[in-house]
Amino acid sequence: MKILRELLGWVGTILGSVVLALIVIIFIFQPTSVDGHSMDNTLHDKEKIIINKTQNIFHGKPKYGDIVIIDSRVDRKRTFWDNVIDPLKYNILVSKFTENTQQIFWVKRVIGKAGDELQFKDGKVIRNGITLEEKYIKEPMRYQSENIIKVPEDCVFVMGDNRNESKDSRVIGPVPNDHVVGKYLFKLG
Length: 189
Prior knowledge:
5 helices; Umud Fragment, subunit A; 4-stranded antiparallel beta sheet; alpha+beta; elongated; 28% helix
């Protein structure tokens, strides 16, 4: 009987630890890795980072210049269950053991917020008539457009720091705030 109680105690401790770890990964902090070169020279391919997901709990909104992790599937509504299942399905550890190489999470920088008007001329981003000074970009952007983009309510416009090698809001459009799943916190190692 004493062995059974001790065994149940160990099982309870292990299960409690697993549940706590899942809560942390799903709702608070999550390790992930940068895939590709769209954030060069700020973050590099295969670099391991930690993201802070607490803005989802407190309904915080990203600020200009924040490096965020977005769910690139902007054509669908994001649900509570996406917040629970996606960190388990699309993470560093699982991708090593499965063939799931789909990259739905992108690391990008917030360039525009709701109501902003954006233009792209002469290798520069112009927000609300003011040319942005962006010391973090890898090289001048080749992308040009005569269109003025107005960022809709409850959305952000994101771009990679390596503008010439980035799929971002120029491709998928503005990103709903509920598709911003976290904010870059720090690099591992």
